[in-house]
Amino acid sequence: MASRITLIASALFWVVMNGLLWQAEWGDRFTSGSELSPDLIWQKILDSPDSSVLSIRYQGRTLGSLEWHPSILEVSRSNTTAIEGMVSAPAGHLIRVSTRIHGSDSPLDRVMVLGTVELSSSNTWQRLQVRVDQRPKSWEIQAEAGSDQVRMIYEEGRQRFEQTFETRNRAALQLMLAPYLTALPSGLIPDIALNHPESLARNSSIDARSDWMQIGRSRVRVYRLSARLPGQLEVTAFISRAGELLKIQLPDRLQLVNEAIIGD
């Protein structure tokens, strides 16, 4: 009799503890469709320990791939014993993005884009570097926060051309990017983003919610970020609870789909 009581008590304890853990983990925050803070999801994405490898699809065709790799920047500390896998002092984040385009009958074919963005501990950008390679040509753009200048480097074979121009000289930037902007799907980038980038944020809204996503035979909880941009454009991203990018819906049937779920 005593053993049965012990067994029942142990089972009840297990059920209660798991219920409390579930409530603490999910609670009302993960009720389907419940509203969340965009900053919370953005922080999850930045702190994600894994890279996100996405397939680029346009109107059902695979055009290339994109790899998103965030990492945490640390402040080095002296006279301390480092523990492997532990961040000593977070100083910000570094985001690396690499994109490869292939099989596209446009000026974007055989293009590789490598970009890095350094963020401070408050998630404000500090440095930006973007390199576009399309042999035998390459373009590189460098910018730093607090500076009103952008550095551009152009190389073709043994030729190298370098120029620094002010950020308000948007005509120069548009001229440099023109061959690629015209190759993008119509309406993908709002005109306001090129002509008046400072007002883009003021005219955009972001909605963050919990949601469900079908992956194979499983239905998993995810975050959903939706951004409404000028020109009635909308971008929707689905992110795993660990901060991994799963799927991004862009205008004109342009999609980024995590390669881990492509076959699902």
Describe this structure in words.
There is one protein chain. With 264 residues, the protein is α+β, with helices and mostly antiparallel strands. It has helices at residues 2-25, 38-47, 170-181, 191-195, and strands at residues 52-58, 61-74, 90-101, 112-120, 125-134, 137-144, 149-156, 159-166, 205-215, 218-229, 233-239, 245-250, 254-258. A 13-stranded antiparallel β-sheet has the order 8-7-6-5-4-3-2-1-13-12-11-10-9, with helices on one face. Strand 1 (52-58) and strand 2 form a beta hairpin. The longest helix has 24 residues, at 2-25. It is globular, with a radius of gyration of 23 Å. Residues 2-6 and 18-30 have low confidence and may be disordered.
Topology:
Layout (H helix, E strand, L loop, with lengths): L1 H24 L12 H10 L4 E7 L2 E14 L15 E12 L10 E9 L4 E10 L2 E8 L4 E8 L2 E8 L3 H12 L9 H5 L9 E11 L2 E12 L3 E7 L5 E6 L3 E5 L6
Antiparallel strand pairs: 1-2, 1-13, 2-3, 3-4, 4-5, 5-6, 6-7, 7-8, 9-10, 10-11, 11-12, 12-13
- By DSSP (H or I, 4+ residues per run), the number of helices equals 4
Strand content: 35-45%
Strand order, sheet with most strands: 8-7-6-5-4-3-2-1-13-12-11-10-9
Q: What is the total tally of β strands?
A: 13
What fraction, in percent, of the residue positions are helical?
A: 10-25%
Order of helices and strands: HHEEEEEEEEHHEEEEE
List the defining traits of the structure above:
single chain; 264 residues; alpha+beta; 13-stranded antiparallel β-sheet; 4 helices; globular
